[in-house]
């Protein structure tokens, strides 16, 4: 099964999940690259993963007899890897794939 058909099945199953109120606020979504189902206020859905980016900068603190003192500031930022959902508001885990019977 290709990735597009997997995404379609996940999106179709979202209507079932919505009946059970499985949607969670987007700020609680995993940030480890795990694929989840996301939705925005317009009802657009997609399977996506969060891409984290780290920024590092130095900030001047003070002058001292040994030279200038700086501190390092690290900030996390990121985005949802999707082409269809702008500003997602909620997410839910993807359903488990169907169990296939072994062929004999």
Short description:
By secondary structure, the protein is an alpha+beta fold.
For the structure shown, list the relevant keywords.
16% helix; 104 residues; elongated
Query: Number of DSSP helices?
Result: 1
Mind describing the biggest β-sheet? 5 strands, antiparallel
Number of separate strands: 5
Mean pLDDT, all residues: 82
* Spatial gap, N to C terminus: 21 Å
Q: What does the overall shape look like?
A: elongated
Q: Give the helix proportion (percent range).
A: 10-25%
Instruction: List low-confidence stretches.
Output: none
Number of domains: 1
Describe this structure in words.
This protein is α+β, with helices and mostly antiparallel strands. It has one domain. The chain is built from one helix and five strands; from the N terminus they run αβββββ. It has a five-stranded antiparallel beta sheet. The radius of gyration is 21 Å and the shape is elongated. The mean pLDDT is 82.
């Amino acid at each position: 099964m290709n990735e597009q058909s997997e995404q379609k099945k996940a999106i179709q199953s979202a209507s079932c999940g919505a009946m059970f109120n499985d949607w969670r606020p987007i700020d609680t979504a995993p940030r480890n690259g795990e694929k989840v189902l996301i939705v925005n206020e317009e009802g657009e859905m997609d399977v996506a993963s969060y891409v984290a980016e780290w920024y590092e900068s130095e900030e001047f603190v003070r002058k001292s007899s040994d030279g200038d003192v700086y501190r390092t500031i690290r900030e996390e930022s990121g985005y949802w890897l999707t082409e269809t959902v702008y500003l997602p508001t909620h997410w839910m885990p993807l359903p488990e794939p169907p169990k296939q019977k072994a062929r004999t």
